[in-house]
Amino acid sequence: xxxxxxxxxxxxxxxxxxxxxxxxxxxxxxxxxxxxxxxxxxxxxxxxxxxxxxxxxxxxxxxxxxxxxxxxxxxxxxxxxxxxxxxxxxxxxxxxxxxxxxxxxxxxxxxxxxxxxxxxxxxxxxxxxxxxxxxxxxxxxxxxxxxxxxxxxxxxxxxxxxxxxxxxxxxxxxxxxxxxxxxxxxxxxxxxxxxxxxxxxxxxxxxxxxxxxxxxxxxxxxxxxxxxx
Length: 229
What we know:
Layout lengths: L1 H28 L4 H8 L6 H12 L6 H39 L1 H8 L3 H27 L5 H9 L5 H25 L6 H21 L15
């Protein structure tokens, strides 16, 4: 019996341990200051944006607020280099968080909800929705995030959404807001400039869109007739 039990438990235990480490890192490190980042990236030359992307990806696996990191990317590298580096880090972090949850946690969640009729029914509804409308669901949640970025990445991995829909939905959902945040950091030294004002306006549009989506009626369950297409 010990062997099968260990085989069932090592994945969720490892996932919980990784989440715990991420929380500790977030509390201990927090969001690095501009001075710390500049000192750390000084002299890296062309490799600086690549290092920033790697650092961003790593920190996006923790509860550190990625919005502040996006602004820092603009401050450090400007808009032209800061945006692709920040987006690359964000997408890599999203993919890694999803893969960890899918590989280490989904089977355990399915076994747990099987023991509860109500829990199994709700999980089945969620899985059905994300199988049929996964791309739109991911875009909507990314535009109207109600949880930290790292938590959402893990939660999506626990669902049945297809990875390609998840990744494409993440790209479509986070790019507008991230672009505006990087631009705010890049042009923040001149708050009266047109690029800065456009950035703030774009960020306001993204936030308003997210609020509207968040206030919409929840998605229908499996009992409802499917939408065309």
